[in-house]
Structure formats: structure tokens, C-alpha cells
Specification:
Length: 66
């Protein structure tokens, strides 16, 4: 379940990054859509980090090689 959630979050981050690029190209950097797309990407990245942090604290994932 956790792996699916992490992969889904990564795909959403990549999709948001791509949409930000498309909006920057189409709007020539003068519209708010690119900023909104990049804000969504940052929020998703922070959310993914928090999910991984909580999963580590709960013992659902463990570091390897340390």
C-alpha cells in the first residue's frame, strides 16, 4: 500500500512539473497558471516527504546499509 502511494505521489509530482512547463511555454511566463502548478508540485513534494517521515517513524520502512 505504501509503495503504491509513493509511486502515485511521484507521478503526480512529475505531472505537475510537466504542466508547469507547458503553462510557462504557452503563457510566456506572464500567467498565474505556471506558478499555481509549481505550487502544487512543492505541496506534493512536502506531502511525500511527510508521508515517508511518518512511515519511518511508524516502522513501516527501514533504512538499508546503515
Amino acid at each position: 500500500m505504501l509503495k503504491i502511494l509513493v509511486v502515485l505521489m511521484l507521478l503526480l509530482i512529475i505531472a505537475s512539473l510537466a504542466s508547469g512547463l507547458v503553462f510557462m511555454i504557452r503563457d510566456r511566463g506572464h500567467g498565474p497558471r505556471a506558478v499555481q502548478a509549481l505550487t502544487v508540485r512543492v505541496a506534493l513534494s512536502v506531502g511525500l516527504f511527510l508521508i515517508l517521515l511518518l512511515a519511518y517513524a511508524a516502522g513501516l520502512i527501514a533504512p538499508y546499509g546503515l
